[in-house]
């Protein structure tokens, strides 16, 4: 099983009311939640670990996880409120305003963490859960506890406006990247992480030097680049009609992990022996799945049967 660890929230998506005035519609979301949903729809054995409210929005999140075949045994339930993210779309690109103080997801601590059974081969971390304390420290502690025993993939998914203490955030993230096997980042996030480097490859190599064995950089329509100690390569993005980019990176991550699962590379030992061709095919599948998501509104990952 792949266990996705991080935030679940409600995306308030812009829409129009019956009289034509602006309105927002509540959709289940969150970067890590989206990845879990996409994995479930792709047929992977996946679970979700997060703080989730018992309120109506929390009930909606649980219902949607179950509907996409995501195991909910590792949810940490409380009566705190659900995080809300107001989504603002400009030419199809999304920005966010978060309402997250004292939320069910944000307030989980190390003592709330469940035991991780041997059936879980891989852990995935990412999203605003890496910046929102105290949950961010809790996820960092979980990664440190489990690193080396399970394959770890990390997507920083930077939201600068959400980071209250940049120094603390960078220190925590650097520690998590050092213990991860795979770090995936967008080109924009990579430039924020390594502003002193001047090219994508040099920026990615700065991340690689921290400890992971593979850094993946997604570049929208330009495809995805994999950087390893012994070289790098780029996989093109499929041509598609882009409606919006909500959930694109999250879905890419799911496609990549689902393919690793299919080819039996979902453990630290087996991943270390992956061939170049296997890594390329995993990136290509991630790009294929993401292309479907960006072709329709919102974070709506495809089911396996929708893929060619």
TrEMBL record:
GO molecular function, one term: fructokinase activity
Keyword Oxidoreductase: no
Domain Carbohydrate kinase PfkB: 2-303
Assigned keywords, A-Z: ATP-binding, Kinase, Nucleotide-binding, Transferase
Entry-linked PROSITE patterns: PFKB_KINASES_2 (PS00584)
Transmembrane residue ranges: none
Similarity comment text for this entry: Belongs to the carbohydrate kinase PfkB family.
Organism from which the protein derives: Shimia isoporae
InterPro entries: Carboh/pur_kinase_PfkB_CS, PfkB_Carbo_kinase, PfkB_dom, Ribo/fructo_kinase, Ribokinase-like
Biological processes per GO annotation: fructose metabolic process
One Pfam family named in its UniProt record: PfkB
Protein name: Fructokinase
């Amino acid at each position: 099983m792949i266990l996705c660890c991080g935030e679940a929230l409600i995306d308030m998506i812009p829409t129009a009311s019956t009289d034509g005035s602006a309105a927002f519609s509540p959709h289940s979301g969150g970067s890590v939640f989206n990845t879990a949903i996409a994995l479930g729809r792709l047929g992977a054995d996946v679970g979700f670990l997060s703080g989730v409210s018992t309120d109506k929005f929390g009930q909606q999140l649980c219902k949607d996880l179950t509907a996409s075949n995501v195991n909910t045994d590792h949810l940490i339930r409380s009566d705190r409120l659900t995080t809300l993210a107001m989504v603002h779309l400009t030419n199809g690109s999304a920005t966010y305003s978060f309402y997250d103080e004292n939320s069910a997801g944000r307030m989980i601590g190390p003592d709330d963490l469940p035991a991780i059974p041997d059936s879980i081969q891989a852990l995935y971390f990412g999203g605003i859960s890496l910046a929102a304390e105290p949950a961010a420290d809790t996820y960092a502690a979980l990664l440190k506890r489990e690193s080396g025993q399970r394959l770890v993939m990390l997507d920083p998914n930077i939201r600068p406006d959400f980071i209250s203490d940049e120094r603390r955030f960078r220190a925590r993230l650097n520690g998590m990247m050092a213990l991860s096997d795979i770090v995936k980042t967008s080109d924009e996030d990579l430039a924020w992480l390594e502003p002193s480097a001047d090219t994508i490859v040099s920026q990615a190599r700065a991340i690689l030097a921290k400890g992971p064995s593979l850094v993946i950089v997604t570049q929208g329509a330009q495809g995805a680049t994999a950087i390893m100690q012994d070289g790098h390569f780029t996989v093109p993005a499929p041509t598609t009609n882009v409606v919006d980019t909500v959930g694109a990176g999250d879905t890419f991550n799911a496609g990549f992990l689902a393919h690793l699962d299919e080819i039996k590379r979902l453990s630290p030992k087996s991943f270390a022996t992956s061939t170049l061709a296997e890594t390329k095919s995993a990136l290509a599948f991630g790009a294929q799945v993401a292309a479907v998501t960006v072709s329709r509104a919102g974070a709506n990952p495809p089911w396996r049967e929708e893929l060619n």
